[in-house]
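Entry 14. Ran structure prediction on the chain below.
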Amino acid sequence: MADSERAKMVRGDLYLANDPELVAARARARRLWQRFNATDPDDAAGRHAMLAELLGGLGAGAWIEPPFYFDYGPQITIGAGVFVNMNCLFLDCAPIVIGDQAQLGPGVQLLTATHPLDAAVRTAGPELARPITIGPRAWLGGGVIVVPGVSIGADTVVGAGSVVVHDLPDGVLAVGNPCRVVRPLGPA
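Output, structure tokens:
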């Protein structure tokens, strides 16, 4: 039996996003995040329960501030004590893993979706996806964009508005477009 388009997508192979199973999964995700985004700010337990239903993994004490947007949900794993500020967008065609106690500022975009560079292949319709990993205790400032296939190391700080196009090591301060390491971070 041939692999499903979903299996190809998560594995990083070319896949067709207009596959009925994927279209239905995105529609389900949109209904769920619309519900989450309309929750009462005082209903912390209800919000956490809803996120546990929406996402592939949610650690204890993790908090996502609405509004929050994503493509599918099950490919997102959020560690314990993670804080995701409002208006973040996760295109989770491939896995997105956020380590314990990481912090994401408002408007952060984690974009696993990409397209073939060859125009003929791209316009024929198949897409690609590459995973994103954010290490424990990393901090991404407001408006940071992380492109497909990037890993950000533990304890690393990414300055607001940066566009992260390459992996970043543990324990550095990195800023800019494209994002570059400015200096190592020492003990506080």
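The mean pLDDT is 94. Will compare against last week's run tomorrow.
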